[in-house]
Amino acid sequence: MNKQNAMTGAITGYHAHIYFDEASEEDAHLVREAIGEKFDARLGRWHHKPVGPHPNWMYQVAFDPDVFSELIPWLALNRRGLTAFIHPETGDAVADHTDHAMWMGEILDLNIDVLRKVDEKS
Question: Which residues contact 75 (CB under 8 A, 6 or more apart)?
C-alpha cells in the first residue's frame, strides 16, 4: 500500500454539517430532503442552537467514504447558499475538524476547545 492509500485508509466516514438560521431554514429543509432522496446518508437531528464545536444552528449528514465522490460535488452545486462544513472521521476529532476539514461558503469559527476536552477525557 502506498503512503497516500495508508492515509486515506484511516477515514471511516464523513460528516457534512449544514448550517442555517431562521431565515434560511426552509432552504436547509430542501437540501436535507434532497440528500435523503439521492444519497445513502444518515441524517442527524436538527439543532436550533450551537452544539459541540459548531457555532450556529445545523444538522449533520453522515456518510461512508464511497458516497463522498457523489454527495460532495452535488452539495457544492445545490447547497442553496448555505454554509457546509465537511470533515472525515479518522478517530482524531481535533485534526478532523481543523487540518482535515473543508468548507463551502462562509468559514466559521469552531469551538475546537470542546473537542480537546473530549480527547483529554478519553
Answer: 16, 31, 35, 84, 86, 104
Burial per residue of 10-28, b for 16 or more beta-carbon CB atoms within 10 angstroms, e otherwise: ebeebbbbbbbeeebeeeb
| Domain extents in the chain | 9-121
- Look at domain 9-121 and name its CATH class: alpha beta
The alpha carbon of 103 is separated from its chain's Cα centroid by a whole number of angstroms, namely 9
Are 28 and 47 in contact by the 8 Å Cβ rule? The answer is no
CA–CA separation, 114 and 110 (whole Å):
9
Amino acid, res. 108: L
Sites in the chain below the pLDDT cut of 70: 1-7, 118-122
